[in-house]
Amino acid sequence: MTSTQEHSEHRGTASIGSAYYPVLVAVFTALVIISNVTATKGVAFGPIIGNWSIITDGGFIVFPLTYVIGDVLSEVYGFKAARRAIFLGFSMNALAALAFWATIYLPAADFYTNQEHFENIVHAYTQLIVAGLAGFIVGQTINAWVVVAIKERTKEKHLWARLVGSTFAGQLGDTLVFCGIAASAIGINTFGDFVTYAALGWVYKTAVEVIMLPITYRVIATIKRREPTYQAAV
């Protein structure tokens, strides 16, 4: 392969060998694990109107930030680099689940009285791992693909279109798959509650990402400027 071909092939992305990529992946992985642990608790706000309540799970606190970082990874490093971060994040989640299951079967000390509660959390966490793995791979793959696909057409222009478009599509795929599997793990058993759970999740996570666009813009601009291997798409 000639140097001209290599230059063209990496146009619009940076190499993952820099100091920034592993930091982003580490934060991304930590947020995924935190989100799955906090998502084991079903949360209801309300009733707001009549008997209607806002139903979600504890994962709403930090989960949208995983998509913000996913956008940064896709925009700066490309689809393959973002996909690598997704798989790494869920490999660590699987390791966490295995560690929790191993802990269940360790002999409990006489003074430890929370074995049953711990088992309940681990069972819910395991179901959420499956839901998260399915939903997140679907959602983040759609998210990364949309960012890269739009960038191929717009180059360095219209970053907002890449971020907003990928968010709407990725979060929809993620939410439908995740909620379909995870609902029973947090105690959602009626169709009405499920519709509220899924719709609210999609709207909320999308809204958070849109609100955070100015911050996402700054992070992307800063990394592009400081990444010695980044080459603008033309």
UniProtKB/TrEMBL annotation:
Compartments it resides in: Cell membrane
Source organism: Mycolicibacterium peregrinum
TM ranges: 20-39, 51-73, 85-108, 128-148, 160-188, 194-217
Annotated family: Belongs to the vitamin uptake transporter (VUT/ECF) (TC 2.A.88) family. Q precursor transporter subfamily.
Keywords noted in UniProt: Cell membrane, Membrane, Transmembrane, Transmembrane helix, Transport
Gene Ontology MF term list: transmembrane transporter activity
Main location: membrane
GO CC term, one of those recorded: plasma membrane
Pfam families: Vut_1 (PF02592)
Name under which the protein is recorded: Probable queuosine precursor transporter
Function, as annotated: Involved in the import of queuosine (Q) precursors, required for Q precursor salvage.
Its membrane topology: Multi-pass membrane protein
InterPro entries recorded: YhhQ
HAMAP family tied to this protein: Q_prec_transport
